[in-house]
Amino acid sequence: MTLDQVIFVISAAAAIFGATMMIAQRNPIASVLYLILSLLAQAVIYIQLGALFLGAILVVVYAGAILVLFLFVIMLLNLRGGEDLGRPTPVLSRLAKYVLALLFLVEMISITYQGFQADVGAGVMALAPDGFGSVTMVATRLFREYLYPFELTGVLLLVAVVGAVVIAKRDTHKESPGGAQGKVRTDESPTESVKG
Amino acid sequence: MVPLSAFLILAIVLFVIGIIGVMLSRNMIVLFMSIELMLNAANLSLIAFSRALSLVDGHAIVFLVLTVAAAEAAVGLAMIVTIYRNRDSINIDRLSLMKW
Fold first, then answer.
1. What is residue B91's three-state secondary structure?
2. pLDDT of the residue at A122
């Protein structure tokens, strides 16, 4: 085994382990931390594939910002893993879901093999050109061929931010200042009455 | 040298784990994280293909997908906060009000 293969096997195992543990955990905070482990392993694979800029972006933006947002919400809602999640799914329905997922896995892997075993040259990684995946190269492509989608992304982010604020905002018209509705919690009612 | 199919199979396995998480989890936050995992698996296959073809187009698309994932996380978490405030639960099965 070359060093390349050793790095791939270790990081692939870490990525799959983190993803599996993320689903299996009952405590949401442990779940987020396992997803961060999986993302860090995926960042190693990105860098192995020559995507240096995107590997850094994955760590900084994904593990550093989006998953911290998840952690923030979990701590805001004070979830500890002991929540009532209703009655468990029936065994038969759970089994059917596993079978469906397995079927999908087998189908995708067989498609991959049919596509890439026939042509040996396609299965081997081509030699990357100099500076492949660097900021310069990605930015040149992004600001020339993909300029229009890139600008649309800015609009999407604006809409998402405004939408998130509107959705998460407390509706002050419906809740009376004195806390007549049962949903107003006692620790928040002073601020409610100030607003009202 | 690691073949391209190894990266693709890793992406497929991660995607299927995400599918299982979406289908089986009753916790809304874990469900959202499973969707993030599926997006990342798609990104991994895009990057593997762009390396195999020596084109950086895949990297630009991954950049756009990351932005969409960030927007989705922001809106989704705002929805989770609102639902939790109204229902006092993060159980996805409780949201069957609009089910046919």
1. strand
2. 53
Which has the minimum average pLDDT: A45-59, A139-153, B84-98?
Answer: B84-98
For domain B4-91, give the fold. Answer: Helix Hairpins (1.10.287)
Q: Which of B9, B22, B31, B33 to mutate to test binding with chain A, by most A CBs within 10 Å of its CB?
A: B33
Tens of pLDDT along A149-170? 999 999 999 999 999 999 888 7
Model confidence over B1-50: pLDDT tens digits?
788 888 999 999 999 999 999 998 888 899 999 999 999 999 999 999 88
In chain A, positions 13-42, which contact chain B (CB-CB < 8 Å)? 15-16, 19-20, 22-23, 25, 28, 31-32, 35, 38-39, 42
The pLDDT of residue A188: 46
Q: Please, what's the b/e burial string for B60-94 (b: 16 or more CB within 10 A of its CB; e: otherwise)?
A: bbbbbbbbebbbbbbbbbbbbbebbeeeebbbbeb
- The CATH topology of domain A1-83 is Four Helix Bundle (Hemerythrin (Met), subunit A) (1.20.120)
Give CA separation, B77 vs A10, A48, A52, A104, A186, in Å: 32, 32, 29, 29, 24
Which residues, other chains included, contact A113 with Cβ-Cβ below 8 Å and sequence gap of 6+?
A: B5
Per domain, the residue ranges of chain A are 1-83, 87-130, 146-196
Complex confidence, ipTM: 0.92
Hey, are the CB atoms on A165 and B93 less than 8 Å from each other?
A: no
The percent of chain A in helix, strand and coil, each rounded to the nearest 5, is: 70, 0, 30
